[in-house]
Amino acid sequence: MYQAKIYITLKQSVLDPQGSAVTKSLHAMGYENVKDVRVGRYLVVDVDAPSKEAAGEQVHDMCRKLLANPVIEDYTFELVEV
Amino acid sequence: MKFGVIVFPGSNCDADCLHAVKAVLDQPVEYIWHKSNSVDGFDCIILPGGFSYGDYLRAGAIARFSPVMEAVINYAQKGGWVLGICNGFQVLLEAGLLPGAMRRNNNLQFICQDTYLKVENCSTPFTALCHPGEVLKIPVAHGEGNYYCDEKTLKELKQNNQIVFRYCDEMGKVTGEANPNGSINNIAGICNRHGNVLGMMPHPERCAEEILGSSDGAVLFKSILASWQRRVK
Amino acid sequence: MEPRSSEKLKPGIWREMGLTDQEFDRVKEILGREPNYVELGIFAVMWSEHCSYKTSRPVLKFFPTEGEQVLQGPGENAGIVDIGDGQAVAFKIESHNHPSAVEPYQGAATGVGGILRDVFTMGARPIAVLDSLRFGSLKNSRTRYLFSGVVSGISGYGNCVGVPTVGGEVFFAPTYEENPLVNVMCVGLIDHKDIKKGVAAGIGNPVMVVGARTGRDGIHGATFASEELSEESAEKRPAVQVGDPFMEKLLLEACLEVIKSGYVVGIQDMGAAGLTSSSCEMASRAGTGIEMDLSLVPRREEGMTPYELMLSESQERMLVVVKKGTEDKVKEIFNKWDLEAVVVGRVTGDGMLRLTEGQQLVAEVPAKALTDEAPVYQRPYSEPEYLKEAQNLSPVKIPIPDNYEQVLLDLLASPNIASKEWVYRQYDHMVGTNTVVRPGSDAAVLRVKGTKKGIAMTTDCNPRYCYLDPYMGGMIAVAEAARNLVCSGAKPLAITNCLNFGNPEKPGVMWQFRRAVQGMSEACRKLNTPVTGGNVSFYNETKGTAVYPTPTVGMVGLIEDLDYCCTQDFKDEGDIIILVGETRVELGGSEYLSVVHGLEGRGTPPQLDLELERKVQQAVLEAIKKGLVKSAHDCSEGGLAVALAESCISGGIGAEIYSIENIRGDALLFGESQSRIIISASENNVAELIRHLTLMEVPFTRLGTVGGEELRINLMDSGCAAGRPRPVINLPVAEMESRWRGAVKCLMK
């Protein structure tokens, strides 16, 4: 069994209104050194797969097809055996 | 002319669309269940608004994989008329029938209000009875209607006359202030290259009868019927 | 980890669960033995104030509950009133104050979920939601956090389910600073033949749990709602449930489909106290018992104890009793909507709520003991000390302002009067395509498709009046709700109410509660709007201070023909403006005193003459039905000047007013005398309208004409009416509009 920790964020070129709102409130709270905030989604997916490679391939597939929207979003993931 | 209204789990404007077709056109109209794998026999398919699958993950992302969508994609590719309203538009984007994607409204809030739309393309079956530049008052109600596409796509949309509706003020001026959600180029609705698939965020079914304060939305339904009658002849 | 049922009770544990020693003795007496943990938990939650109404019950008896229009009065999930043609309206209001104070988004969202289920469990399709919200001052950042959280919670849930949020009210006063009030009302439409009730009838009939799985959400939420909020409340976060509006939408469709199928005997929402309250209430109503095997209840988490399963407040679940032999058909319908439906037990004839876990008995309690035999308290009451001092305010000591224009602009920008567009823009108020009059008017109006009928609805309560005189305040809340409906052209039918008060163990709070209920009852009798249900929320206090007594009234009315539906906006140049009713020197409890003089909640509130109120309402309603009236607007917070300004702003047109200054100018313009409605009519109908008003024996004054781009108010000396009018207000409608429209939005930036 493998566990994929998937992080999905808006692409750098796409405006992230949530992120800008959080940046603004952090600034208002005195964290003026905050340069940028990107808000995203975090998913934990448990996959039963024969190998780490196979699991990784499936997770890539899932991200491209459903979990992320490639038009506006980027994804990365970490894969660990559990 | 026979209309079909797709029902996804979480669709909530399905009954409104059904009612509008009956009230405005008095034409046969039926629901199509999301588990159905055929849309044969229908002359126009409407993907209604709502929160299909709770809009969990992303608006329209899960609905795009329901069995009926495969049939809808085939139907559209063969030239069948498909109208996606609000969540239906989001599903069409996720399904790749239309280019681009939706982001959250730039004020991060759900917005329900009347908007003015400038009709930019009167050659689609959905806008055939409109005049170029005509201004329609049609309400929006969405949290993710901030349309986005990259520059190249935008250029293509313009070149191919695929931008059908843009947010404008009462006088028809396309201004930043008139844009409720931050969408690129004030885009409110686009069609595919062939013009047989239209996606729009505003809800024509909500203003198709005078008692609801405006009947500007009726022109879309009337256009569809008129275009169909012309085609059948 | 909760103790297992077999363990012996820790001495005094009942106190931690919210039962007194006497109540615990009563439990032992009923059972003839010591209860186990599960049984104790069941008693504690069912006998909590929230579920048992042990304090309020004797007082609620004052309410009139009968009328020929009432098809279902209090005691069911929702009340039902007849609207003719075999159709009816189901409606109810409920509070979600305490959950919203600790987690505003989810608290408000689950409040919407709960009230929707109360309505569709009767078999009605919800067609509208209204919210009555109260917060502290918007200048406070915590208030802004709570306010925006509550609004987005309502929006997030209601919009997703697809029921329009069409109205309600928002009120700000320092008293709600840490204890906001979130009252949610739902209105549904139903055919008489489809009405279903929460009864577990028919011995041997299967009992099914349907909808979401049960988790450890909100265990003891009901007892939580019966305690004052304290510093530790923030730590109680796990007691707040999380709503799933998508699940609710599926449950709504599936339940309405299964009810139509005819397989259902009784159905009830699992609200506060979840499986416990739904099962024992259904059994108790039918005079039956229920037997359930808890190991069959679908759950989200492993290792849940019977105690947890019985007390969980996981949302979006229903308990359904179906006709024997139809289980599979019922499952099929729920499966179609991707929902689980599981038989967990059956109806018995012995009146016991009997719970097992597999073969093992875990609890056995007489169902009626939990509902009908809950303790009832006649709590002592006495007039609170603050009252005399707060009421004592001589008008002579209030300086008359020299610039009425500034006063009007300040009032229009006060969050209590200013446009609530910032709020309702976030609510889908049009889904369903029935909304004929949108939010922002006196009452919302929805059409009934396929008929000429409309349903008007509103919520109302001025808590300042209730604080200064709960009897008068309660009466006014009912009268004003009715007046709002009348302004839309509707005949008021009935009310539901949400009674928000402080700690009833304090005699002063108990006195407020009794007086308010008595005042409401009298108005309900006079206006023929019986009470069909509602709820009571006590313990709305922070650091020992009660919030203003806030008996929110939710009212529905019927418009027989939508061609004669009326709105508040002035329509056409040259129309004549008439004020129906009388203006007296009544400044106590007004928004004007609070905003302009810093006197929040001071003085005696305006007085209400119920007979005059009834006559004014009848006269205006009949005039609207005769087609003589083009606009009608209730005069409320901010008085005559604000009401005129609102009619101008919403109509986008000005008005020219001439009024005799027979009382002090500020009272004339900004006082909140009751039983007043501003109407406008086209000039050729005025003669008939005046004849009509005269015949109906109501006082009225011709105020002026609609037209221009400004609101101009001129006062004339009462001594020589022919003397030169003195212009006191001359403001462009556009300027008033920008102040009125921008205020809340600006504060929330």
User: Which percent band covers the strand fraction of chain B?
Assistant: 15-25%
The major sheet of chain B is characterized as: 9 strands, mixed
Number of strands of chain B: 11
Number of strands of chain A: 3
Labels describing this entry:
heterotrimer; A: 82 residues; Mth169, Chain: A; 3-stranded antiparallel beta sheet; B: 233 residues; alpha/beta; Rossmann fold; 9-stranded mixed beta sheet; 5 helices; 24% helix; globular
Task: Give a written overview of the molecule.
The complex is a heterotrimer of chains A (82), B (233) and C (749). Chain A has a single domain (2-81), classed as Phosphoribosylformylglycinamidine synthase subunit PurS (Mth169, Chain: A, 2-Layer Sandwich), CATH 3.30.1280.10. Chain A is built from two helices and three strands, in the order βαβαβ. Chain A has helices at 17-28, 52-67; strands at 2-10, 40-47, 73-81. The model of chain A has no long low-confidence stretch (mean pLDDT 90). Chain B has a single domain, classed as 3-Layer(aba) Sandwich (Rossmann fold). Helices cover 24% and strands 24% of the residues of chain B. In chain B, the strands form two sheets. A nine-stranded mixed beta sheet of chain B has the order 2-1-3-4-11-10-9-6-7, with helices on both faces. A two-stranded antiparallel sheet of chain B has the order 5-8. In chain B, helix 1 links the parallel strand 1 (3-7) and strand 2. The radius of gyration of chain B is 16 Å and the shape is globular. Chain C has 749 residues and is α+β, with helices and mostly antiparallel strands. In chain C, strand 4 (125-135), helix 8 (141-161) and strand 5 form a beta-alpha-beta unit. Chains in contact: A-B, B-C. Chain B binds chain C through residues 9-10, 12-13, 15-16, 19-20, 49-51, 53-56, 109-113, 139, 141, 143, 203, 205-206, 208-209, 211-213, and chain C through 152, 155-156, 159-162, 244-247, 249-250, 337-338, 424-433, 435-436, 438, 447, 449, 562.
